[in-house]
Amino acid sequence: CDADLSQQQPRGLGNPEALARETVFSVSEIEALYELFKKISSAVIDDGLITKDEFQLALFKTTKKESLFADRVFDLFDTKHKGILDFKEFALALSIFHPNAPINDKIEFLFQLYDLKQQGFIKRQELKQMVVATLAEAGMNLADDVIESIIDKTFEEADTKHDGKIDKEEWRNLVLHHPSLLKNMTLQYLKDITTTFPSFVFHSQVDDV
Amino acid sequence: QPTSMNAFELISMSKGLNLENLFDT
């Protein structure tokens, strides 16, 4: 069944001009980004699509490492929910990480990422699960009561409606007080993508606008 | 110090959230 689905996934660069209109990228940047996509998507199977294994391999240089957050990032990139990324999904998602992308898109993306159960809010248990996962990834041990006090403190600050959950509005207010929470949402590399992958000019189909 | 951070600051340190590595091909 999965194999059938991947057969239907579009491959290749597609229409770079249309993608440039849908994203903050220029046509040249879309073509340079496609060079990166080709590298990542050919790491395990050269089929023009990025699997979760290839995504993890690009992030951690190993397919062994399991990360709750790499999983969540992949799932949010995978808007067609087919378990694989085509170039359009990749470009649309990475556009949010561009330094020129609207801050509201970054705030929204990160909220969705942290909203593990996709209920429209973040509850204590989800937050604790993410803290525990982060500590485990980093090989750090913190006593449960210390973790609980970190969660308590966070909810005291963020949960201004005192209903035991952090909704999108509360998340937005928290981020505005702590802009560093968005630091992972901006990749300077995307601004220099045409110089990082200059080989795109050899494959360029169009003159940039 | 993780204990002085709020939970989201701590989570943002996760390597899984740092996509810079995608460009290190």
List SSEs of chain A in N-to-C order. Answer: HHHEHHEHHEHHEHHH
Tell me how many strands of chain A there are.
4
**Biggest sheet of chain A, in brief?**
2 strands, antiparallel
| Oligomer classification | heterodimer
**Content of β-strand of chain A:** under 5%
User: What's the total helix number of chain A?
Assistant: 12
Name the structural class of chain B: mainly alpha
Q: Uncertain segments of chain B of ≥5 residues (pLDDT<50)? A: none
Determine the fraction of residues in helical runs of chain A and give it as a percent range.
55-70%
Biggest interface and which pair forms it? A-B, 46 and 22 residues
Average pLDDT of chain A: 92
| Number of separate strands of chain B | 0
**Biggest sheet character of chain B:** none
- % residues in beta strands of chain B: under 5%
Physical arrangement of strands within the biggest beta sheet of chain A: 1-2
N→C terminal distance of chain A: 41 Å
Cα distance, first to last residue of chain B?
Answer: 32 Å
Radius of gyration of chain A: 19 Å
Can you describe what's shown?
The complex is a heterodimer of chains A (209) and B (25). Chain A is mostly helical and 209 residues long. In chain A, 56% of the residues lie in helices and 5% in strands. Chain A has a two-stranded antiparallel ribbon with strand order 1-2. In chain A, strands 3-4 form a two-stranded antiparallel sheet. Chain B has 1 helix and no strands. Chains A and B meet through helix 3, helix 4, helix 5, helix 8 and helix 9 of A and helix 1 of B.
List keywords for this structure.
heterodimer, A: 209 residues, mainly alpha, two-stranded antiparallel sheet, two-stranded antiparallel ribbon, B: 25 residues, 1 helix
